[in-house]
Amino acid sequence: MDTRWKPSVTVAAIIERDGRYLLVEEHTPEGLRLNNPAGHLDPGEGPIEACAREVLEETAHDFTPTALLGVYLSRFQRAATGEDVTYLRLAFTGPLGEAVPGRALDDGIVRTLWLTLDEVRASRDRHRSPLVLRCIEDHAAGRRLPLEAIYTDPSVLGGR
């Protein structure tokens, strides 16, 4: 039996435009929640590519990460099932690109919305996790790390 602890690796995009942050409203087991465009790292991709893919799937817009905001660790227990999950999140920032014509939002995503930092803070009871606000506050504080801080060995990219 494998008892090694394996946190779920996720990526998130913190996108700001004109003082507002892009969030998605999505269906979750806990109900309708707000989240940064985010999702799981898939086999055969690096974190930077995963973040661009997740933004496209959840917002129907292109996204190019330009900086790493940070690496975050969070633990969550589902009230309904008691499932205990730990997430390791790599958060990136960059400009939102153009909408992709004809591209639908991912299943479960209800809509995208732009909120000010104060509106994000006021809606924290609807956040999917405490990392939603933490990542946005780190962005607002000016935290930026070079993308070169993330290295993906080529052996990973062939692992599909």
TrEMBL record:
<dbReference type="GO" id="GO:0017111">
    <property type="term" value="F:ribonucleoside triphosphate phosphatase activity"/>
</dbReference>
<dbReference type="GO" id="GO:0017110">
    <property type="term" value="F:nucleoside diphosphate phosphatase activity"/>
</dbReference>
<dbReference type="GO" id="GO:0004787">
    <property type="term" value="F:thiamine diphosphate phosphatase activity"/>
</dbReference>
<keyword id="KW-0378">Hydrolase</keyword>
<feature type="domain" description="Nudix hydrolase">
    <location>
        <begin position="4"/>
        <end position="137"/>
    </location>
</feature>
<comment type="subunit">
    <text>Monomer.</text>
</comment>
<comment type="similarity">
    <text>Belongs to the Nudix hydrolase family. NudJ subfamily.</text>
</comment>
<keyword id="KW-0460">Magnesium</keyword>
<dbReference type="InterPro" id="IPR015797">
    <property type="entry name" value="NUDIX_hydrolase-like_dom_sf"/>
</dbReference>
<protein>
    <recommendedName>
        <fullName>Phosphatase NudJ</fullName>
        <ecNumber>3.6.1.-</ecNumber>
    </recommendedName>
</protein>
<dbReference type="InterPro" id="IPR000086">
    <property type="entry name" value="NUDIX_hydrolase_dom"/>
</dbReference>
<dbReference type="InterPro" id="IPR033713">
    <property type="entry name" value="NudJ"/>
</dbReference>
<dbReference type="Pfam" id="PF00293">
    <property type="entry name" value="NUDIX"/>
</dbReference>
